[in-house]
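A.,

Following up on our hallway conversation. Structure tokens first:
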């Protein structure tokens, strides 16, 4: 193990990790919003939008992120829509993650007893109020394990961003391996930085799941 090489290029990996985390967080936040929108459309049974959401979920979940990135980065410019690598990464992650979040929220809503809806309506709550104040808080609690798993999955999927020339962790590792042939050292740094990103998320998610169970949700 060449420790001098590791120390020399550690700042480069730190910069790539910050970029990877920034794009990952932005994409995950957008995926949450897309997921909530999709589950609201499905819950309200809006005729045309509901069919569009179903098609979107099927396309998103059954195509690889790499293909989606190629379509956004290389395909959309053919019709005049150009994006830089960072915007492409965020859009691709949001497009993929939105469908997974929507399905996680949907499974949580379907796990709620019908009497919860009927009780809310009998108290005079509208469908929107029922969804916002009764259904979604319980659905999020029940779906928390799936949501945390989706967050970890999306952060790991950032490893394909190098395909659109984004200077993320994987791109940095591949670039340094090609230049200096220090494969062991480059892959060691890659593993360490992905662990530094993903392990705290996993531990925080586990703690959150436990607290929700103690609060009486998600059992």
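Then the amino acids I'd put at each of the 219 positions:
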């Amino acid at each position: 193990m060449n420790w001098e090489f590791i120390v020399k290029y550690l700042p480069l990996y730190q910069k790539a990790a910050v970029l990877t985390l920034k794009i990952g967080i932005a994409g995950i936040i957008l995926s949450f919003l897309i997921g909530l929108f999709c589950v609201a459309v499905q819950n309200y049974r809006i005729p045309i939008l509901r069919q569009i959401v179903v098609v979107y979920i099927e396309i998103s979940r059954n195509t690889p992120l790499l293909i989606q990135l190629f379509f956004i980065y290389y395909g959309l410019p053919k019709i005049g829509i150009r994006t830089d690598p960072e915007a492409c990464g965020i859009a691709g992650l949001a497009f993929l993650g939105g469908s997974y979040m929507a399905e996680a929220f949907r499974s949580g809503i379907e796990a709620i007893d019908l009497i919860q809806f009927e009780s809310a309506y009998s108290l005079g709550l509208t469908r929107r109020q029922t969804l916002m104040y009764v259904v979604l808080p319980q659905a999020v609690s029940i779906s928390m394990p799936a949501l945390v798993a989706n967050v970890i999955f999306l952060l790991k999927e950032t490893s394909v961003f190098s395909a659109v020339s984004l200077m993320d962790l994987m791109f940095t590792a591949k670039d340094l391996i090609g230049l200096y042939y220090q494969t062991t050292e480059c892959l060691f740094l890659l593993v360490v930085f992905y662990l530094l990103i993903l392990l705290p998320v996993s531990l925080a998610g586990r703690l959150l799941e436990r607290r929700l169970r103690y609060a009486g949700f998600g059992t």
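The radius of gyration is 21 Å. Curious whether your intuition agrees with the design.

B.
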